[in-house]
Design goal:
Layout lengths: L1 H10 L2 H16 L8 H25 L1 H5 L8 H4 L6 H21 L2 H22 L6 H5 L1 H12 L7 H24 L1 H7 L4 H5 L1 H19 L9 H23 L3 H29 L1
């Protein structure tokens, strides 16, 4: 039983799903206006989680052959053949997506439902099917998945998002590439062997590190702007502390490009995002 739960947790990429859910809750928190009822917030969170889960499962379903060729992913159930790809699995994945979109429309409004759908579509189709093996821009455009989660949360308050959630959505768009390019630097040989054109594979680790630093500085500076649109000191403290750590790690990556510094930068990106989103939620909860 435990093994089955672990496999499903992996197939549906639940860790990423919870991160995307947190993006939606942060988008909700930074949007001025009356907050939805508690039950609506719960269903919003669940809808975004299920939507992200469906996209994660579709990613593994589609990439099963690619995953089998990569060290990091070769033990995934679809890659090993333990889960057989076919109409049943595809139907289940689409059903999860349908339920998530329907839940968002029922509990909140059609704008939330649209953003919930678009987030899954970008990751599951645009990134995974259309771009992953074709261009280094794959994860750049794939970053819109997190942005749509922020906008889903914001639309639960106001279908016309205010400046703060729009800025946060752009921050998520800018955050995804340096986060994933850092991991791609760690797994450079793996991606090169599999023929996946991640940025470090295309331009080399040294130039990729400089581009990562540029993205990091831009997103951190932008993440400070919501403080000018009503967010308080808790948000600003989270944005500054996490952002400073991420920039410092990115500078170290430029100075010594390679797997060790890239993994440190990958972890710094997770810390920065976590602090930013939690600070946004706490700022609304404690200072509003």
């Amino acid at each position: 039983m435990g093994a089955t739960v672990g496999q499903l947790w992996s197939v549906f990429k639940m860790r990423i799903g919870f991160a995307i859910m947190l993006c939606a809750l942060a988008g909700l928190a930074v949007t001025p206006g009356p907050q939805p009822e508690a039950w609506q917030v719960v269903l919003l969170a669940l809808a975004v989680l299920l939507s992200a889960a469906s996209a994660g499962a579709l990613n593994q379903y589609v990439e099963r052959d690619l995953d089998a060729r990569m060290l990091r992913t070769k033990r995934r159930p679809f890659a090993t053949g333990e889960y057989q790809a076919g109409p049943l699995w595809l139907s289940a994945i689409l059903l999860v997506l349908f339920l998530s979109v329907a839940m968002a429309a029922f509990a909140l409004n059609i704008y939330v439902a649209l953003h919930v759908f678009l987030g899954a579509f970008v990751y599951g189709v645009v990134y995974t099917v259309w771009l992953k093996t074709r261009t280094w821009l794959n994860i750049v455009l794939g970053g819109l998945a997190g942005s749509f989660a922020v906008l889903a949360g914001a639309s639960a308050v106001d279908p016309n998002p205010a400046p703060a959630p729009l800025i946060l959505a752009v921050v998520l768009f800018l955050w995804t590439p340096p986060h994933f390019w850092s991991l791609a630097t760690v797994m450079h040989k793996d991606y090169a062997k599999a023929g996946v054109p991640m940025l470090p594979v295309v331009v080399g680790d040294a130039l990729a590190a400089k581009i990562i630093l540029g993205h990091t500085v831009a997103l951190v500076l932008l993440s400070l702007l919501p403080a000018a649109y009503g967010l308080g000191w808790i948000y600003l403290a989270g944005a500054i502390s996490g952002g400073a750590w991420f920039i410092l790690a990115s500078i170290k990556l430029v100075l010594r490009p390679g797997p060790l510094a890239a993994m440190a930068n990958f972890k710094a990106s997770l810390l920065q995002l976590g602090l930013l989103l939690l600070a946004a939620i706490l700022d609304r909860a404690l200072l509003a």
